[in-house]
Amino acid sequence: MQYRDISTDTQTVYRLAANEKMVFFMLNRTGDITIELAGSGATAHVFALYSGKGTLKQSLTLTQKHLAPDTISSVLIKSALDDQSSFTYDGAIEIAPDAHRSDASLESRALLLSADARATARPTLEILAHDVSCHHAAATSPINAEALYFAQSRGLSAAKARDLLVQGFFQEAIEKMQTLCVNFQFPIHNVQTMFNESISELQH
Predict the structure, then answer these.
(1) Alpha-carbon span 20 to 40, nearest angstrom
(2) How high does pLDDT run on average in the chain?
(3) pLDDT at 98 over 50
(4) Is residue 83 a contact partner of residue 54, using CB atoms and an 8 Å limit?
(5) In the chain, beta strands by DSSP E
(6) Of 97, 111, 124, 154, which alpha carbon lies 20 to 30 A from 134's?
(7) Are 173 and 76 in contact (CB under 8 A)?
(8) Which of 28, 90, 23 has the alpha carbon at shortest distance from 62?
(9) Tens digit of each residue's pLDDT (9 = 90 or more) over 15-48
């Protein structure tokens, strides 16, 4: 399984040929993106992580387009939003008439770090083939007050306790990427620094 970081790409359409297998990673990337599974046996796994602060508004439109049979795609979106920031995800799964036995899933999970943060997920499915498997899920939740209290009771400051919970929230995506790409190494302890740098660039 190949790995590709497309966080800063300007390309908007990624086309996979027969039996091509790819893990795509995005950090705070916005805009319209299409993943095309054009050849039989093509596989794409997309992991997108987002963090918002202040009044930052981010949006992503991502289409998983199955054009051939026996193709697989999965999308996992995770966003941690603070202050009055917001994130909107429009996700579409499109299964063409000849794309039999396709397997597609999309999932969006948002962690709200303040009462004013907002997350929206709008999944859509267009299935024109038979014998396919399609799944979608979305959830938004506030930070776990009990877990935050427990972390602070262990001697962590409120800020460090929250950072720890945010890192734990993103850990699932990191571990899945590491399972798919044996040689992939992601510095989970640097996630917050990476987000801060990325957000700083977005705000300037």
Answers:
(1) 9
(2) 89
(3) yes
(4) yes
(5) 2-5, 13-16, 21-27, 31-37, 43-52, 57-66, 72-81, 86-95, 103-112, 118-127, 133-142
(6) 111
(7) yes
(8) 90
(9) 999 999 999 999 999 999 999 999 999 999 999 9
Using the CB atoms, write b or e for 20-33: b if 16+ within 10 Å. Answer: eebbbbbbbbbeeb
CA distance 128 to 86: 33
**49, burial (CB in 10 Å: exposed 0-12, middle 13-18, buried 19+):** buried
Overall residue count recorded for the chain in this entry: 204
Chain centroid, CA 165 distance in Å = 18
Structure tokens at 138: 């979305």
Rounded-to-integer distance, Cα 3 and Cα 21, Å: 9
For 131, the token pair is 């014998």
Those residues with Cβ within 8 angstroms of residue 96's Cβ, 6 or more apart along the chain or in another chain:
65, 66, 67, 68, 128, 129
Q: What is the model's pLDDT at position 120?
A: 96
Look up residue 1 and give its two tokens.
Answer: 């399984």
Alpha-carbon distance of 76 to 60, in angstroms, equals: 12
